[in-house]
Amino acid sequence: MERILILGASGFIGNAIYKELCSYFDTHGTYCTDSRALEKNHQFHQYDMETDSLDLLLYNLKPSIIISAVRGSFEAQIALHYSVISYILTHPCKLIFLSSANVFDAFTNYPSYEYDKTLSQSIYGRFKIKIENALLRLPNDKYNILRLPMVFGQGSPRLNEIKTLIDLGEAIEVFPNVVINVTEISKITQQIHYIVNRKLQGVFHLGSSDLVHQKDFVEDICEILGYDNPLFKNVYDSNNDRYLAVLPKDNLLPTNLQISVQEVVEASLKK
Known about the structure:
Blueprint: E1 3-7, H1 12-21, E2 26-31, H2 36-40, E3 44-46, H3 55-61, E4 65-68, H4 74-90, E5 94-100, H5 123-136, E6 143-148, E7 150-152, H6 157-167, E8 172-174, E9 178-180, E10 182-184, H7 185-197, E11 202-205, E12 212-213, H8 214-224, E13 232-234, E14 242-244, H9 261-267
Helix pairs in contact: 1-7, 4-5
């Protein structure tokens, strides 16, 4: 049985991955902030990447797959991923790295595909590219790069933020000229489960197979949640449509693991 270690398993995405995989694999996770509930779960290990070394945990667990869903200081994350890369090069282990559509945020005229050149104007995007580039130098069986667009679904921070702003009577910032694709949390966890099961290699774009203007999408979310006339603040950062979308082309998953924008909207209501 595969032993999987999820870095950042107390976060929204990491915890959802843990819940998806824990019945099928010997799944372990790290958490940073003190938590009585997680302390009682012997599959969870407290780890602070700013102060702790991961070496002892890796030595004790000997995972065959490490999934990185960790958040926090970019510098600490880069050091952490370099130490993970050293480990997987000398052990029978691979890294599944959750990356972002932001690795393409400097290319705005068209959507991006798996093996397009990355280029970012944002600190966040450049940080993701730095780790991606280190992984792309490894043998193919040692890594997956999974690029995610904005993640929605029940309980997602982005959905909660929209609800909070509306409840406070504050305006939601929307971008009428930005064309995106999106996804939702339960589909991501199913996709990762499939990639692990099938031992797939390479780079995957885990976004919806269709595109939408960001403002239209947020309006649809508000409508399905039952909000009438929420306040919007339109932000125009260009005169033309600007793309921030990661579409799959080379590494397509089966149809039942693909998702549409409409399904992402509807997932906002799922319990």
